[in-house]
Amino acid sequence: MLAVAAQDATPLTPEQRQLALQAFAREHGLRDAAALESYRQQQLLAAAELEALIELPLRLQRHCERQFGAKAEARFLERKTQLDRVVYSLLRLTDAGLARELYLQIAEGESNFADLAAVHAQGPEKATRGIVGPVSLTQAHPLLADRLRTASPGALLEPFPVENWWLVVRLESLTPAVFDAPTATKMAEELFQQWLSEQEERQLGQLRALLPTAAPALASPAAATP
């Protein structure tokens, strides 16, 4: 990656350098210039090497946008369903009868979903009073994701089984992904990482081709005839 970033000879603006320095300091817990200098000495870096390290993320971002920006929107459309974000309420139970009873209490307005989740939920959603998200639909079980994808916000879904659980679910919100500048950058970076992996695989394949093939195992000598 350093070699890729080194191809970008365009100097950063003072504002870009400041942002890069702030991001680097946050990442490494460096509070002031003295801490930065101490870090440089501990890592045995020359001043120019430290500067290159600080600027690396921004230069990589510029490289990604320059080389893969034209394909970013196509990548976004390919991944859009994975990028959409959902918030939903979840009650996870092992007892089908209890799941049905709690569903009816919520549907008829007798009880509040959050209150029931805080008492009855048997998964980690109990700690959040049933609320999950915002998360990508890809983080949900495929059966749950399919139902959320076709539900309308506010819809309470009847209990349905997923593996060893019965789920009561209400879709709170669905936020479609938008192809804006940050998303375009993210897609370009994903394409760069994909290209990088392909290059590594190609080079490994070339190295394997240069290695001598293993010699066939010698047959064991025949046993002597008595």
Describe what this molecule looks like in 3D:
The structure is a single chain. This protein has helices at 2-6, 14-28, 33-42, 47-68, 72-83, 96-107, 113-120, 142-150, 181-210, and strands at residues 85-93, 131-136, 156-162, 165-175. The chain is an alpha+beta fold. The termini are far apart. 16% of the residues are buried. The model has no long low-confidence stretch (mean pLDDT 90).
Could you give the topology of this structure?
Blueprint: H1 2-6, H2 14-28, H3 33-42, H4 47-68, H5 72-83, E1 85-93, H6 96-107, H7 113-120, E2 131-136, H8 142-150, E3 156-162, E4 165-175, H9 181-210
Antiparallel strand pairs: 1-2, 1-4, 3-4
Mean pLDDT: 90
Tell me the number of strands.
4
CATH class of the largest domain: Alpha Beta
Residues in β-strands, percent: 5-15%
Overall shape: elongated
Query: What structural category arises from helix and sheet content?
Result: alpha+beta
Head-to-tail CA distance between termini: 68 Å
- Regions with little confidence, pLDDT below 50 for 5+ residues: none
How many domains would you count in the coordinates?
2
Strand neighbour order, sheet with most strands? 2-1-4-3
Q: Over the alpha carbons, how many angstroms does the gyration radius reach?
A: 28 Å
Structure keywords:
single chain; 226 residues; alpha+beta; Chitinase A, domain 3; 2 domains; 4-stranded antiparallel beta sheet; 4 strands; 15% strand; elongated
Briefly summarize what is shown.
This protein is α+β, with helices and mostly antiparallel strands and 226 residues long. It has helices at 2-6, 14-28, 33-42, 47-68, 72-83, 96-107, 113-120, 142-150, 181-210; strands at 85-93, 131-136, 156-162, 165-175.
